[in-house]
């Protein structure tokens, strides 16, 4: 019986790409597979024909020969006569691409990401800085160049999984993949391990890195340093290093987003009479005019004296919280003056201490109820 044209079998054009061919075959394979059509001889033949066409048209050399000479060009090389078991392999080829396993499981593994907690000062966060850190990591073994085998030897393909790293179990229409118990998924067997890394391909190492701290970083921000994590396995790419920022407590300021807060103690006389005080900022000193009769809790806002965050356009503000300080360790003369002031104030309490007067009235109303 004359064979049909492979492109006609799969229902694709002669210039169809590999993905189009795969999709067409997958559709036919699912339709005509013997497990779905038990005892149907015609379906089995259709399945065999589709598989043969797929295997030829997805092989660059076979496809070129077929396009030039037709079936004669691949005589003796085509799959032909594939049965239900043959479907498992072809099915694996198609779906293996989805999971990155075509032609055997890839044994390359990306290295793990690393985390480093970095404590910095408020000044470093505000202005940016550069610092050095020393981190422990796993790096490629220089003795065996990362393959884990003793110099002069090389890893051998695992005979159990044929280098795939996985073994397949067929259960009816479905096949289940499991990690190869012989090579633990590596696909290779190392008969003579490297004496430096003991066959792992990586060794523990400490390295020193320069870390640039961007202007405005805040508590919990992460600085990603690409490729500075642990080395990959079997030639895989390295992971990344994430430097997590933590701000140390400051003796004067407390940060809240882009704003800074600080407490400013002022004397009893300055609070009552008013005056000018000097306050610290991250850029130096600034002066604040304190109006007369200032109370504890009064907030003075200094615009643009805070921090410009990493994602901010402008600086925040500095908020100065006033705390009226009660004098301590008074001299006899100071006590006399305060007692005299108190006596004078009591003659017109509502005028000199309106808050205390109001509070006393509210307290009396409460107890009289």
Q: Give me the Rg, rounded.
A: 40 Å
Overall spatial form: elongated
Total number of distinct structural domains: 5
Enumerate how many helices there are, as a single number. Answer: 10
Secondary-structure topology with pairs:
Layout: H1 6-10, H2 18-32, H3 41-57, H4 60-69, H5 84-98, E1 114-120, H6 122-127, E2 129-140, E3 156-157, E4 166-171, E5 174-179, E6 188-189, E7 202-213, E8 222-225, E9 241-247, E10 254-256, E11 259-266, H7 268-273, E12 275-281, E13 284-290, E14 299-302, E15 318-324, H8 332-346, H9 349-352, H10 354-368
Parallel strand pairs: 1-9, 11-15
Antiparallel strand pairs: 2-7, 3-6, 4-5, 8-9, 10-11, 12-13, 14-15
Please describe what this structure looks like.
Strands 10-11-15-14 form a 4-stranded mixed sheet. It has a 3-stranded mixed sheet with strand order 1-9-8. Strands 2-7 form a two-stranded antiparallel ribbon. It has 5 domains: 6-98, DnaJ domain (Helix Hairpins, Orthogonal Bundle), CATH 1.10.287; 107-152 and 196-249, Urease metallochaperone UreE, N-terminal domain (HSP40/DNAj peptide-binding domain), CATH 2.60.260; 156-189, no CATH class; 259-324, Urease metallochaperone UreE, N-terminal domain (HSP40/DNAj peptide-binding domain, Sandwich), CATH 2.60.260; 332-368, no CATH class. β12 and β13 form a beta hairpin. It is elongated, with a radius of gyration of 40 Å. The longest helix has 17 residues, at 41-57. With 369 residues, the protein is α+β, with helices and mostly antiparallel strands. It is 29% helix and 25% strand.
């Amino acid at each position: 019986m004359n064979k049909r044209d492979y492109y006609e079998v799969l229902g694709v054009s002669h210039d169809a790409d590999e993905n189009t061919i795969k999709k067409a075959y997958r559709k036919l394979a699912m339709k005509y597979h013997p497990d779905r059509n038990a005892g149907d001889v015609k379906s089995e033949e259709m399945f065999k024909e589709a598989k043969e066409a797929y295997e030829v048209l997805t092989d660059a050399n076979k496809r070129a020969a077929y396009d030039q000479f037709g079936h004669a060009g691949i005589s003796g090389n085509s799959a032909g006569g594939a049965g239900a078991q043959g479907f498992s392999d072809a099915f694996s080829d198609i779906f293996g691409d989805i999971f990155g396993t075509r032609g055997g499981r890839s044994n390359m593994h990306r290295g793990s990401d690393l985390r480093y907690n970095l404590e910095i000062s408020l000044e470093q966060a505000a202005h940016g800085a550069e610092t050095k850190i020393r981190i422990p990591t796993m790096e490629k073994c220089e003795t065996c160049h990362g393959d884990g085998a003793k110099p002069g030897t090389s890893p051998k393909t695992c005979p159990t999984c044929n280098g795939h790293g996985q073994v397949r179990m067929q259960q009816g229409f479905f096949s289940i993949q499991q990690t190869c118990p012989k090579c633990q998924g590596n696909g290779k067997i190392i008969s003579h391990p490297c004496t430096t890394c003991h066959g792992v391909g990586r060794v523990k190492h400490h390295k020193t890195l320069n870390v640039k701290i961007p202007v405005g970083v805040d508590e919990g921000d992460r600085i990603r340093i690409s490729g500075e994590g642990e080395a990959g396995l079997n030639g895989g790419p390295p992971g990344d290093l994430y430097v997590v920022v933590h701000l140390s407590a400051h003796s004067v300021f407390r940060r809240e987003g882009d704003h800074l807060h600080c407490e400013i103690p002022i004397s009893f006389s300055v609070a009552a009479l008013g005056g000018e005080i000097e306050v610290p900022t991250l850029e130096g000193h600034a002066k604040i005019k304190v109006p007369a009769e200032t109370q504890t809790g009064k907030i003075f806002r200094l615009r643009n004296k805070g921090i410009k965050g990493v994602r901010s356009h402008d600086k925040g503000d500095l908020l100065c919280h006033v705390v009226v300080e009660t004098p301590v360790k008074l001299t006899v003369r100071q006590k006399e003056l305060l007692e005299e002031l108190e006596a004078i104030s009591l003659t017109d309490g509502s005028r000199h201490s309106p808050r205390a007067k109001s509070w006393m009235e509210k307290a009396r109303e409460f107890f009289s109820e």
